Amino acid sequence: MSTRYAALLRGIAPSNPNMTNDKLRGVFEGLGFDSVASVLASGNIVFSARKAGVPALQRRIQRALNGALGIPGGTIVREHAELRALLDRDPFPGLTHGRGTYLTATFLKDGAQAPDRLPEQSDPRARVVGFDESARVFLAVIDNSDPGSIPDFMSWLEKTYGADITTRAWLTVQRIVKKLES
Known about the structure:
four-stranded antiparallel β-sheet, DUF1697
């Protein structure tokens, strides 16, 4: 029986000829995965595969991406059911994605240590609103209404939690789930 997955690839630059959606999909198809599709041009690949341990699946995909395309970045995989449940929990109640409320989800790699408490961020324009333990994801609201002064939230997260993370806009997470369900 097949399971639907989303691979969230870190460090994808669509302008790099080795990081185009068609090449990324080709690597996944070469691994024998079915129903491979991309979501946007920023390293989001959905696919079907036999049920497998996520850490082993992440390593297998990352080795293939590095070997075939020279992509050294991280690969974070989530099952469709995990992402669907995250959306159903409505972690941003009453908030809508916009300039002053840019909703983000920062996924930790499987095996990464969950925080004992929510991290404090020194910039009041970036606020962690929760950590969803089942999906292993930080949920944050960023005020980017002043383009000349956007908080450097991603660098702060990486300094605090290391490079085994990747961030997506909440709208992108919603699009990934929709693609997994189509």
